[in-house]
Amino acid sequence: MANSTAKLELGGENREYEVLEGSVGPDVINIASLYRDTGMFTYDPGFTSTASCESKITYIDGDEGTLLHRGYPIEQLADHGDFLEVCYLLLYGELPTKAQKEDFDYRVTRHTMLHEQMSRFFTGFRRDAHPMAVMCGMVGALSAFYHDSTDISDPHQRMVASIRMIAKMPTIAAMAYKYHIGQPFIYPRNELSYAANFLHMCFAVPCEEYHVNPVLARAMDRIFILHADHEQNASTSTVRLAGSSGANPFACIAAGIACLWGPAHGGANEAALNMLAEIGTVDRIPEYIDRAKDRDDPFRLMGFGHRVYKNYDPRAKIMQKTTHEVLGELGIKDDPQLDVALELERIALTDEYFIEKKLYPNIDFYSGITLRALGFPTTMFTVLFALARTVGWIAQWKEMIEDPNQKIGRPRQLYTGATQRDYVPIANR
Ligand code: SDX
């Protein structure tokens, strides 16, 4: 909705651009005609001041430290809902009725099996391959099997692909883990909940019954909720850009997985636990705080800082609570890395540098401690993030495909390279 304008004086000409107002959060200046009007581009590396799209799915207030999914605060969804309910909310825009939830759970549950031939792909990977490399390959390969849900112009196929992605990510992630540790694959069990089924596929072995601890299953489900979606972050923007060319949803999600892998993004949960292990003891924290503040040292506190949150990441608070719950349930009294994390947070939050730059713990700071306690190796942490974020990627992809204003994403540039010059034969160089 346009209700005011922004004035631009350029080259002696005055122009006005409409200001569009959202339901909440910053207004935007619609500059779509700027190049046609002025022959100039805007310049915003990293898109710090750029809205790439209109969306109704997730809203973050970075100053307040709030996160809403379709208007519902993350704290309420994490306390009262389950992950598949949040998936329904992200995909359809409303919380499901009891009947809608039962139908959605049924549909997802019955898509959890993977085409049997796909299990052969795993033998092509080295056992010690990083599981994220396997995830990139396996998810991209889904488009080589599920041809009946790759026509993005068909709403039915878009929904089938969405359900398949949400349903099969835990199976693929568990298979990547089992392959990594040299154990046989465990098939999904339809009588188990989404999170319990995932833990069963990861930790059961054919030799004996495996009973999933309900407290740990609930913690796993809540961790999935916390990672489900987060506005136009780097990997979601990757999925949207890939999807804007008409690429099939499986290929787009594979692109999102590749982007999430980076340590500045989803890879930070693995990097944060490795950092806590490297620090080792509380007395070594000051040395690392100094390194984080040293502009000449590339070291950063992994799990700290955020492009949007300039306050405490609400997900980190819930994650910290979950960490204590899981450690308590497992009877882990003292976890040296948790001690280091708590003390590191305490020191950082009172340090002038972190206060001035508004650096707070983000979701990745505590998640690693929890995931390791649940039994996962650090190499699986970002895989779990990708598993949970798949619903956010697919919901944002679907919204983009269904947006009448969307077109192929094709940014421009500020060119500072050589101007035109003639070829010089090698004999004359
Ligand atoms: C996720 O976007 C999302 O929503 C992402 C995510 C999601 O759910 O999708 O929330 C998930 O990716 C969380 C972030 C995980 N990454 C990390 O924890 C890695 C460590 N954090 C930093 O790399 C950094 O904070 C980023 C990448 C998260 C944010 O970077 P920005 O917004 O580009 O900020 P910046 O790098 O420009 O930093 C601003 C200043 C800089 O100092 P100056 O150059 O201005 O002097 O703060 C400093 C930075 O040096 N800074 C840090 C720091 N993070 C920023 N200094 C020390 N330690 C840090 N962690």
Please tell me about this protein's structure.
This protein has 429 residues and is mainly alpha-helical. The chain contains 17 helices and six strands. The protein has helices spanning 34-38, 74-80, 83-92, 98-109, 131-141, 155-181, 194-203, 214-226, 234-243, 249-260, 268-279, 285-293, 314-329, 336-348, 352-356, 363-374, 381-401; strands at 2-10, 13-20, 28-29, 58-61, 66-69, 72-73. A three-stranded antiparallel sheet has the order 1-2-3, with no helix packed on it. The radius of gyration is 23 Å and the shape is globular. Bound molecules: s-citryldethia Coenzyme A.
Compact summary:
The chain has 429 residues and is mainly α. It has helices spanning 34-38, 74-80, 83-92, 98-109, 131-141, 155-181, 194-203, 214-226, 234-243, 249-260, 268-279, 285-293, 314-329, 336-348, 352-356, 363-374, 381-401, and strands at residues 2-10, 13-20, 28-29, 58-61, 66-69, 72-73.
Provide the descriptors you would attach to this structure in a database record:
binds s-citryldethia Coenzyme A; three-stranded antiparallel β-sheet; mainly alpha; 429 residues; 17 helices; 48% helix; Citrate synthase; single chain
Spans where pLDDT lies below 50 across 5 or more residues: none
Query: What is the C-alpha radius of gyration, as a whole number of Å?
Result: 23 Å
Distance between the termini: 59 Å
Work out the number of β strands: 6
Q: How does the helix and strand content classify structurally?
A: mainly alpha
